[in-house]
Amino acid sequence: MVEETTRRAVLSAVLGAGVGGMALTEARSYLRRFAPGSGSVWGAATGSVPDELSSPYGPATVRYDDYGVPHVESDDERAAYYAVGYCHGADRFFQMDLYRRLMAGRLSAVVGASTVDSDTFHRQMDFEAAAEATWERAEGTETGDAVEAYVDGVEAARVAEPTPVEYGLLEFDPEPWTPTATMLVEKQISWSLTGSFRTLRRALARDRLGEGAAETLYPRILDHDTPIVRNGGGASTPSMDGPDATAPAPGLVSWLDAFESEPGIGSNSWVVSGEHTASGDPIVANDPHLQLSVPPVWYEQHVATPASDARGVSFPGVPFVIIGQNAAGAWGFTNAGADVIDFYSYETSDGGSSYRYGEGTREFESSTETVEVAGGEDREIEVKRSVHGAVLTGYPDGDGFESADELGVAWTGLSATRTVEAVHDLNRSGGVDDAEAAIRTFDEPTQCFVYADRDGNTYYWVTGQIPIRTTDGEPVAGTRVFDGSAREGEWGPGYSPYGESSWEGFVPFEEKPGVRNPDYLATANQRITDDPEHYLSGGYAPPFRGTRIYDRLDARAESGEPMDAAFNRDLQLDTVDGRYDLFRPIIADAVEAGADGSGEDLDAPTAASLLEWDGETRPGDAEPLLFDQWLRDFRERTFGEAFEDAGLPAGFSRPNDWVLGSLPPDSEWFDGDRGAAAADAMAKSRARIDAEGWERYGDWNRVRFAHPFDQPFLNYEQLPTAGSAGSVRNFHSEASTGSSWRMVATFDGDSRAVLPGGNSGAYFSPHYDDQLSLWADGEYKPMTRTAPDGVDLRFTGADR
Amino acid sequence: MTPTFLAELRADDRRRLAATALAAVVGLALALGHWAGLLVAGALVALPQRSVVRGVVAGLALGSVAVGGFLAAFALAGTLGPALSMGQPLWLALAIGLFLPPFGSLLRGVV
User: Fold this and answer.
1) Which end of chain A has a smaller Cβ tally under 10 Å, C or N?
2) Which residues, including other chains, have CB under 8 Å from residue B14's CB and lie 6 or more apart?
3) Which residues, by range, are in coiled-coil regions (chain A) (predicted)?
């Protein structure tokens, strides 16, 4: 009896302790998320998906093709966009929600303290208020109605579809989608393409390195002869037009680095007229280089209504096709890199609560906001606005910046913009005239727009609002930090941050660079034109891609062979690294210098073998591996120590490869001996390759697309791939940027495209990553506007 | 100290088997709603058994059924492949499914 009583007591204690441990500790969270049957992460795998739903906007059908691309059809445009919204919500809701939280500065509420800095920056910029102003502008218009139908569709999916696995993992609930959220996504895109802190970096470089060095290392205009519009005039090389009003604090510049686009954001596009194609119809090619994320940044769709029949890609959260093709034309975008952001310092008073503005004094609009932090202490931050727009300052609990830690910011995207209307009109356009009318209202971001229509027209124009800054009534370039109190660098009176702008005082559409019916024209983020009518940009991409594209187009045109679709796809996949020609003489110097590590017993390619290389970045070759690694080391060998000695912050942006490769051999940056510097770098990179055990380029150059949670099962498989930062087939292995969509659009029904990953962001979907191998191997899939058989989702009409 | 109805239940094979089957169904239904259902399920199927060891074996068997059903649900939904590729989360689920019911079945040694 005693033994039984003891046993019962022990088992009771074990049970009690066990259940208590499970219910009262961290273990409960794991059980709640992963328990078989009830775990919150499993609903996405086993939940049922409806195939018939009612729509308040009327009937519509959705047919998914073999790659999960929805083909939406309806006789009513709003019914169609309700269905599109449903598809976005079903396939990409978590991604959309994350964009929204990022831009609204509410990430920390779900992911914890690691994103407090990000939330602080995004609250300071107050993108949400800009999105609200943009929605207020659109509400009640035809586009606004379509957006509202889309939002309702997203909401229907949020309720009807299984909750994405990420919500279960993070244990938070999806919030309702709203029209403002859609506008926030548009702001996110615009910021990622035009939100640059280049002006601040150059101001800091001028302060620390001196005016001459800064002009050499960070030139606004690069000395090459392949602008987008090849008018053969030769570029003038204007520098900044006056000293900076202040040198920004290094800590502020470093802090802001995290909120700017990754290196490698850019794109290729070209348009070829029917004069040069086999079919006699024009061809449009476009491959935007953006973050290679999981899921992809783009969502492919086909929407057919009586008003439009467009297929292409949109950003999840935005209803309309942004890059693609409709029944009349095909179009693409690349970043124009125009300077649409300026920075202002102020003379402050009253303990920093007021600032001088001209002859008067103004109060900063100021408020205290709470950044909610999951699993941590909430943070209070101060958000300020000036007459110019946002005010950026270092993180309040930060490192006590000593100077210029507070700057006013004017950015075109802070105003109400009409881009969503422009894209909607583009979807419905019936030819080049309609397309031009549509992009006149494409306020942000500044882009190079290429277009061709079925009638054989070709077209190129720069889009987006570009400010004309004036100081004392005279136009000035936006290349310096302005004295906001002295009213330097004022934008036109038509700019209203967080309100609706008239855009008077901005560059008129006709005065932006553009060409009607070009024979062929290529854009790769290089200088747009030699002689712009207005100041356009504080800096362009090096010309490696642009030159290579034009060289191949020129050669093909001269050969008389047609530029058919296959040629254009081949050009999109061109792997010749344009940097090789520039750096080959320097590699030869290194070989001559001798001390390049060739004599070491290393299992790595040698510098001498690089001199025999053809410059193609093939994953199976060893030479591109050494070239890529050496270039990193050579850049660092040249600038790293000198920048550190000058007091520039760690990781300060290095001069681009065109600048590095163009420095004279006896430049002081090489300590007077370029060959020795190159040889040092070569020895270092060979040793690293040996230590890492890399044998070929593909061992290093792999797709490493990571999901925001960076969970192994959510990330894409790592695959070796071709291409580099200097090739048309663009890929930045470390930054994970590159071709986020490859499209070659024709008018003979053979348009083709591919996404880096899959069209669905739902982990359990067969379309989560079903295009990844195609993308990595340089293959394409059809982009037809013929819907497949069988209806997957049927929306029936319902009274509203 | 054991309640009379439990003692009688354990002594009658037909009633014991019927009670076990009913406990399994009820327990698994509870497990679909909350993780604690797996504990309760283990306890329910263990209580009619004639010994503590048999009770734990019953709990383990129920855990196996729960895990088998869990994987079958993936197979029916066409998501077994990606589920198996998840690694840690899936192993965690299987471990939970196999551990909680026998742990709950320890109640057999108390009542």
Assistant:
1) N
2) none
3) none
As a whole number of angstroms, the distance between CA A293 and CA A296 comes to 5
* A704's tokens: 């490493």
* Of A255-269, A729-743, B90-104, the least confident: A255-269
pLDDT of amino acid A800: 47
Supply A249's token pair: 């604090």
Complex ipTM: 0.94
Q: Counting Cβ atoms within 10 Å, is residue A645 exposed (0-12), middle (13-18) or buried (19+)?
A: exposed
**What pTM, to 2 d.p., does this model score?**
0.94
Per-chain mean pLDDT for chain A = 93
**How far away is chain A from the Cα of B73, in angstroms, using its nearest Cα?**
6
Residues 6 or more apart whose Cβ sits within 8 Å of residue B58:
B20, B42, B45, B46, B49, B105
User: What would the pLDDT profile of A247-263 be if each residue is shown by its tens digit?
Assistant: 998 888 988 988 987 77
| B77 vs A22, A31, A45: nearest CB | A45
Report the pLDDT averaged over residues B25-31: 93
Angle at A77 between CA A438 and CA A296, to 5 degrees: 70
Euclidean distance between the first and the last CA atom of chain A, given in angstroms as a whole number: 73
Kindly state whether A772 is in contact with chain B, defined as any CB-CB distance less than 8 angstroms.
no
Whether the per-residue pLDDT at A797 is higher than 70: the answer is yes
Q: Which residues of B touch A764 (CB under 8 A)?
A: 77, 79, 82-83
Binning pLDDT at 50, 70 and 90, where does residue A237 land? low
* Cis amide leading into A238 (omega within 30): no
Q: Which of A634, A660, A635, A670 has the alpha carbon at shortest distance from A542?
A: A660
Omega within 30 of 0 (cis) for the link into A179: no
How far is it, in rounded angstroms, from Cα A345 to Cα A401?
15
Tokens 């009583």 locate to A5
Contacts 24+ apart (CB under 8 A), A594-597: A594/A679, A595/A676, A595/A679, A595/A680, A595/A683, A596/A678, A596/A679, A596/A682, A596/A683, A596/A686, A597/A679, A597/A682, A597/A683, A597/A684, A597/A686, A597/A687
Residue in A516, A678, A666 with CA at minimum distance from that of residue A610: A678
Is the separation of the CB atoms in A754 and A742 below 8 Å?
Answer: yes
Residue A51, pLDDT score = 81
- A633 three-state secondary structure: helix
Q: Does A516 touch chain B (CB under 8 A)?
A: no
Task: State yes or no: pLDDT of A398 exceeds 80.
Answer: no
Provide the phi-psi class of A501: left if phi over 0, else alpha when psi is between -120 and 50, else beta: beta
- In 3D, which of A495, A496, A482 has the Cα closest to residue A407? A482
From the list B67, B74, B110, the residue facing A11 with the nearest CB is B110
